[in-house]
Design brief:
Length: 212
């Protein structure tokens, strides 16, 4: 099977079996999403979704959050992982949005990465989810699943995987493909004990072929 065929069959499978693939983070606007994505580092979406309602009620926009001390933000996010660092990141991110972007979340992934607490993955999530930019956010699930299926070859880093995936996935599908791979990794192609008997990609999966 050629690499092109592998991509085509993978895309066809997800189009049929997971036609709707979206982030599981709950958000109302770009600012709430970037807050949620920053909080989601090393933390489950379920936990973040428990935190954000009260947090956003207190700080509904960048200006409101920019006027708060990190210690005040911390009070609302203590139940997530690394709350002290994230409180500082949220405070700095909100201040920069107000000072340099008129309080609006930019759509350009390069500009997004200037914000405190926003690395390449977070920037790509926001740019693809909200603004439908053709950028691929590679988290641990996307990295693992794309490697196991054989969509990426000898990708040692998330950036290497990202470049390979965006090279072969049609631009208009990249934002959706991120969620296809992520959700497949979260619920089926798990790091430990993958549920291969529930996967419809075993006929083209390199990982499954080695396990047999």
């Amino acid at each position: 099977m050629t690499l092109k065929e592998r991509y085509e069959k993978t895309i066809e499978y997800f189009r049929i079996n997971r036609p709707i693939a979206e982030t599981e983070l709950v958000y109302e606007d770009p600012f709430e999403l970037i807050v949620a994505v920053i909080l989601s580092a090393q933390c489950t979406d379920k936990r973040v979704n428990m935190i954000t309602p009260a947090l956003m009620k207190r700080f509904p926009d960048a200006r409101a959050m920019s006027e708060a001390e990190p210690s005040e933000i911390l009070e609302h996010i203590k139940s997530c992982s690394y709350p002290n660092n994230k409180a500082r990141h949220l405070s700095g991110m909100a201040r920069m949005l107000v000072e340099e972007f008129n309080g609006k979340v930019p759509s350009d992934p390069v500009l997004l990465q200037r914000l405190p607490g926003v690395g390449r993955k977070t920037a790509n999530v926001v740019a693809s989810v909200v603004f439908r930019k053709p950028v691929m956010a590679v988290d641990t699930h996307v990295f693992r699943v794309s490697q196991r299926i054989g969509l990426t070859i000898n990708a040692r880093t998330p950036l290497s995987a990202e470049l390979q995936l965006t090279r072969h996935i049609p631009g208009e599908l990249i934002h959706q493909a991120h969620h296809w791979l992520l959700l497949h990794g979260r619920y089926i192609c798990r790091a430990r004990n993958p549920l291969c008997d529930q996967c419809g990609l075993t006929d083209l999966c390199k990982y499954y072929a080695r396990r047999k």
